[in-house]
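Re: your question from the hallway

Yes, I did run it. Sequences:
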Amino acid sequence: MNGSQWADHLIQPHFVVSGNGVDEPIDSLVGINRQSVDVLMETVASDMALGISAVMLFPVIDKSHRDATGTMASTPDNPLIQATRSLREKHGESLVILADVCLCTYTDHGNCGIIVNGHIDNDSTLPHLTRQAIALADAGVDYVALSDMMDHRVAHVRSGLEKEGHTTTGILAYSAKYASSFYGPFQEAAHSAPSKWGRSSHQMDFRSTVREALLEVDMDIEEGADIVMIKPALPYLDIISAVADRSLRPVAAYHVSGEYAMLNSVAKDDDHLGRMVNETLHSIRRSGAELIVTYHARRALEQGWLT
Ligand code: PBG
Ligand code: ZN
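Structure:
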């Protein structure tokens, strides 16, 4: 594969903030910035010139706009909604827009669900996720990316979207998302580290069997997922491979923030980093992932690292 063939398989993540002219480097993710919509527009345009045609958008919400249930998510003030509208208006169908659906970036406690009687409550969370998904579909996303890992959220979101007439909005499900220690830099970037509770009640245990992951994938597909994702990528290549062998839906892998930081931190120089990124992204593709969400996408294409 050459660079331009690679481009179709890569999804570049972005962190979107409110305001104007904001272009703030993220210490834990060197080379990735938190950007307001106006700056994001320029970044995406230059990425598209490199061949990138898909973006994954995450919000970073100021502490002062957060509350227990993440109300901000489905209001017009949500920078994710504003970014989606502007990108759609400017690029039409030539850009594939995927937007994150979860609560952890909007809640004051940083958890992915609603807290009821001292625990993260699966069923009380579902209507909030669906409301978010509808607001993003109204704004024009191609795919809502469900990163929360609540049970039956794909079915709930799917039926909510259909009731609102959004019959063509896609669902990318984080189907096998592990409670991982590789998310640290992301949580720093999005200020979404949970103050209490954490992720282990809903994200998967890395000690669980491959079959468990296959079951999660099957359920999400049955409930209406269009793309299934495994996350993180490198410690779970066996899962990607097992899912890809069976799945009738496209398989995506998320090469997460900790994996990105890890390669950056051991690279002797740019050339060395490029060779590691090329080798790594090949391993993820070889395991069966058609799509890779990676913070390396932009640099890799710009520098011609991928062969
Ligand atoms: C939020 C979410 C996380 C990531 C993507 N969506 C973090 C988490 O679950 O705490 C991690 C991505 C990365 O590390 O790059 N549900
Ligand atoms: Zn979350």
